[in-house]
């Protein structure tokens, strides 16, 4: 995979151009490569060997502490020591000022090696949010101690009764005493409520856990404000600290209510947490002590600021699980003898068996995986590049990048979580019966990957976001911008030998997509348009990936090979492009048909008819 | 599900007409219902409550014995006591002379309750084979003791180096002494070799295990005959018995080499067995003692005789796992409040949340499951009905049924294993994060179901069987027959109000399928045709299911409802039919495109390009 990452960064995304910008001026392709080298090595040494171990030795609670394997402790330490937690931060805060594109690529190696040991994505996201929305003291005390790896971070959004529907958050935050606004850490509140699906919510991996918690401050009538407008964001440390970042010795009232036992992704502790239930009364209680971040009522806005990167992170995790399965099944197919070539005269059973990679159907399953996973990797890195552009580009370029990123984010999150899961299923299939056993790694990749369609906004939520918001916002400006970019690729490809056919195919698909978008909204009735938001999301994703593959085909055509390996790489990219365009892209027909006709059979279905 | 089974048997397949045949003359719809009642009850009481238990308490080997949960012992006993092991057998052999259609329907309840506890399908299959191909003594001693539940049976086909490629079986059988042909149990051989993936290969559930083993008898040159021609079939009991069926006290040389630890389906012991390795030397050894069944060299033919029913069994298991997930997610969706209706004015967060079954996208996921699983159930029962027809119909009808069954079997096996797995994934998705935890049953159904695309002939093998053999055999007679049957349905549906549109859609799809079949073979080069056998299988399956759904739509239109429940059932069937025809059937376009153009990108892919 490394060779592909290098190719994508250098030959396709031209990462070197980033180093012309002041923020990244100290960097070069060499420093980028060093970061990738380091991460690849740590992932190989500290993550990959323990991926099955963290699946079998699930986190367990001994009544007092959550116990994790030593390997997890070691991996988390090594990751923190690498400096990756603050890779994107300013030098003055101990960061590397690394472009997000390179950070995302580097983190991919950990996800491939062992997705559930975790890389501190939550800690980084938590601290990044504080750097953006926190006070100076919140940054210095909380964010910086997270970046150093001394403490870790969580994101506490969901509740047992409020998952997809965040507006139903019921955790309550009330001012803590008359002097609550005088608190140096930010207005001090007392929180009570339950938070569900909290990853890394309880463990002993480091000294403290900094929870970022969504909660509602009651209105003047004492009632919680309905909807998302009422939601605020709070820092709730597991252990209280002073302004110098020293533990005060006081345990905050955050209690583990239970560990969730999952189908996969078992290396990560996933918890139900009770805030302020009285298990650990603190400073006279009741309630867990929390400090307001940003302004009251703007909690979700602060969180959503991190959402694009978090969703790219999930997409990348899904992609890397797919990639891990692809590599495993490719290696297996190369060495497993079974069967003989299909020839006109029938098979000659006296001949020795051939490696299964010689069978067309096995090649099909490998090529599908390649098309799904390498395409998804390119998409994620493209989106990461947009993040960098939105932060460091000219105002005009930054605005464009932001808009395009808004439209692409639901795809970056949903597409790999659906299709790289399918890749994992194919990886099992290539292995035959062996793939279904726990003696081979692929069944775990498949189980691990099933989470990605659920967390960080389900597939259905991504679909509503895309069709209900992203493609209609600003009069459809985002969709138009995407169409323009796709059109430019088609234009360029049309002039390259061998790419006219996929270019034309993509042009037709893009037109179909545009027409379906219009038809979906033709009546202006959201209920009618959005009933088929998921097939729309699927079709949209396939069009985007067909575009990405045409881009990669172009890049392969333009990268004159210096070695046999590079020539083979180019041939492989062109084959995967063709695979995607002939086997996958035509699937949009079925998905868009129901979108276009605003098919009503689902929304008109009655409960009693099931 | 019971109401649907009754509807399918009575109103669609007209199971009562079977009772007009001599073999089933003692039966009636009432006796059929009693069998279903009994099986439904045993499944509910002895299987369903222990489905998670058998997942967590995997079979383990204590060095001497394989230990299974008590629940498995109880379930196996209850199943044997029900008489289902010999349900289809003659009265004179202790059977019920039950039509296979009813047997398959009855067994479905066990598969839904706990697929991996197992129902004795292997034992029944083993004994049925002996009733067909065995000598009188083989029947009396081995088959009858299996039917009674005193002993159990296995099928030993695969070897570590010979899974899909059975012609590479290397287990050797040599005549046991000069008097080997004088053995009353059938010519006596000594077997040496390893058999992989043997379900129920070792356990203490009953007194003895009767292995049916494929092995090769060396030719005059002492070498094994290459290919499948050389394969013979042997009875190899774990413990030797005498002609009265009494254990002689001698252990045969069949040794457990290891248990396979699987992703799911963990209630069933799955083993690697060593035959004749010398661990249990018997009667002076070497080799395990085995008795030839049928003629030498005809082992596979004997096995294939059972294949149609075994494959229907796998398809039904896949279907029932899908159905179990559908029912679980439907129940969950009815009681889980989350979110609010999409309305033109936006959501009113002050309103209470609604059950998620009210959301169009959740209804879509439920309707998809309904369409996949109920359609698959109908297909399996249709195929089971063909089995009965092939056994008890007029010679002409029997021949037709056999031919049609040959063509449909790859679909009956592969389609549910692909799409009811997808149904299980949707069942998880409906549950959100909860579905990904082991506190809910759906993740297990999904894991369990992943096996079905692998065992009893992988997806790829089914595809080669369909496109490489079934649709071309006898000059395409099977495909023509299917087309005729589908055409009759289209004809009938065309005259019914509301069914003209799906009838026309199916007619077009059938034509597309026929054209693609021709194009695939246009050059007559197997390598070119078969490179896209799997997309062909997928398209073929969807056309077959669209036909089944049109049949069910017709049946629903024709069954005048006597109650509100029946009216709701009819409405549900018609909605599922529409769902399948508008969301699913159009997918064939993408699959058949590559078949028709004999797309070569996969088979031309080079190893080094990956």
Plain-language structure description:
- The structure is a homodimer of 610-residue chains.
- By secondary structure, chain A is an alpha+beta fold.
- Chain A has 4 domains: 1-119, Butyryl-Coa Dehydrogenase, subunit A, domain 1 (Orthogonal Bundle); 151-297, Butyryl-CoA Dehydrogenase, subunit A, domain 2 (Beta Barrel), CATH 2.40.110; 298-341 and 350-457, Butyryl-CoA Dehydrogenase, subunit A, domain 3 (Up-down Bundle), CATH 1.20.140; 463-603, no CATH class.
- Chain A is built from 18 helices and 12 strands.
- In chain A, strands 3, 4, 5, 6, 7, 10, 11 and 12 form an 8-stranded mixed beta sheet that branches. A two-stranded antiparallel ribbon of chain A has the order 1-2.
- In chain A, strand 8 (239-241) and strand 9 form a beta hairpin.
- The longest helix of chain A is centred in the middle third of the chain and has 37 residues, at 299-335.
- Chain A is globular.
- Chains A, B: Belongs to the acyl-CoA dehydrogenase family.
- Chains A, B: Keywords: FAD, Flavoprotein.
- Chains A, B: Residues 353-465 form the Acyl-CoA dehydrogenase/oxidase C-terminal domain.
Q: What would a concise description of this structure say?
A:
By secondary structure, chain A is α+β, with helices and mostly antiparallel strands.
Summary tags:
globular, 4 domains, Butyryl-CoA Dehydrogenase, subunit A, domain 2, 12 strands, Butyryl-CoA Dehydrogenase, subunit A, domain 3, AcylCo_DH-like_C (chains A, B), 610 residues, Butyryl-Coa Dehydrogenase, subunit A, domain 1, alpha+beta, 18 helices, FAD (chains A, B), Acyl-CoA dehydrogenase (chains A, B), 8-stranded mixed beta sheet, homodimer
């Amino acid at each position: 995979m490394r060779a592909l990452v290098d190719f994508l960064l250098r030959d396709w995304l031209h990462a070197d151009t980033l180093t012309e910008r002041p923020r990244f001026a100290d960097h070069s392709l060499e420093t980028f490569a060093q970061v990738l080298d380091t991460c690849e090595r740590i992932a190989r040494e500290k993550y990959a060997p323990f991926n099955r171990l963290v699946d079998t030795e699930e986190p367990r609670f001994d009544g007092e502490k959550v116990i994790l394997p030593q390997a997890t402790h070691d991996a988390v330490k090594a990751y923190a020591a690498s400096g990756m937690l603050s890779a994107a931060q300013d030098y003055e805060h101990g960061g590397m000022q690394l472009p997000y594109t390179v950070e995302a690529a580097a983190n991919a190696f950990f996800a491939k090696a062992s997705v559930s040991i975790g890389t501190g994505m939550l800690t980084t996201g938590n601290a990044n949010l504080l750097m953006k929305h926190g006070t100076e003291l919140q940054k210095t005390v909380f964010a910086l101690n997270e970046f150093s790896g001394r403490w870790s971070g969580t994101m506490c959004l969901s509740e047992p009764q409020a998952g997809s529907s965040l507006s139903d958050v019921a955790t309550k935050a009330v001012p803590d005493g008359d002097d609550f606004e005088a608190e140096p850490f930010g207005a001090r509140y007392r929180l009570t409520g339950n938070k569900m699906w909290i990853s890394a919510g309880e463990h002993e991996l480091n000294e403290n856990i900094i929870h970022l918690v969504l909660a509602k401050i009651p209105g003047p009538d004492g009632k919680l404000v309905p909807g998302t407008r009422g939601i605020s964001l709070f820092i709730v440390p597991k252990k209280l600290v002073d302004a110098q970042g020293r533990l005060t010795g006081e345990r905050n009232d955050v209690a583990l209510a239970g560990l969730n036992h999952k189908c996969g992704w078992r290396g990560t502790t996933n918890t139900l947490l009770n805030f302020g239930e009285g298990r650990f009364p603190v400073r006279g209680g009741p309630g867990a002590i929390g400090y307001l971040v940003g302004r009251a009522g703007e909690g979700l806005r602060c969180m959503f600021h991190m959402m694009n990167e978090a969703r790219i992170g999930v997409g990348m995790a899904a992609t890397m699980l797919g990639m891990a399965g692809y590599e495993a099944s490719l290696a297996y197919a190369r060495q497993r003898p079974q069967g003989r070539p299909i020839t006109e005269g029938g098979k000659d059973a006296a001949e020795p068996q051939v490696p299964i990679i010689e069978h067309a159907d096995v090649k099909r399953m490998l090529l599908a995986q390649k098309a799904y996973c390498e395409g998804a990797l390119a998409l994620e890195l493209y989106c990461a590049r947009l993040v960098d552009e939105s932060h460091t580009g000219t105002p005009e370029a930054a605005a464009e990048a932001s808009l395009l990123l808004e439209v692409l984010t639901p795809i970056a999150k949903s597409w790999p979580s659906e299709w790289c899961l399918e890749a994992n299923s194919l990886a099992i299939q290539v292995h035959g019966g062996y793939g279904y056993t726990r003696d081979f790694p692929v069944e775990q990749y498949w189980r691990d990957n099933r989470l990605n369609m659920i967390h960080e906004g389900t597939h259905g939520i991504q679909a509503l976001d895309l069709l209900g918001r992203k493609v209609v916002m600003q009069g459809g400006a985002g969709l138009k911008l995407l169409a323009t970019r796709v059109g430019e690729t088609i234009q360029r490809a049309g002039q390259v030998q061998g790419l006219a056919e996929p270019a034309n195919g993509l042009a037709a698909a893009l037109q179909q997509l545009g027409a379906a978008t219009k038809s979906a909204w033709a009546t202006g009735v959201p209920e009618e348009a959005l009933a088929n938001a998921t097939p729309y999301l699927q079709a949209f994703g396939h069009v985007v990936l067909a575009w990405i593959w045409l881009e990669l085909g172009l890049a392969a055509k333009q990268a004159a090979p210096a070695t046999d390996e590079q020539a083979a790489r180019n041939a492989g990219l062109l084959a995967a492009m063709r695979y995607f365009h002939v086997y996958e892209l035509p699937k949009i027909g079925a998905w868009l048909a129901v979108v276009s006709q605003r098919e009503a059979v689902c929304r008109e279905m009655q409960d009693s008819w099931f």
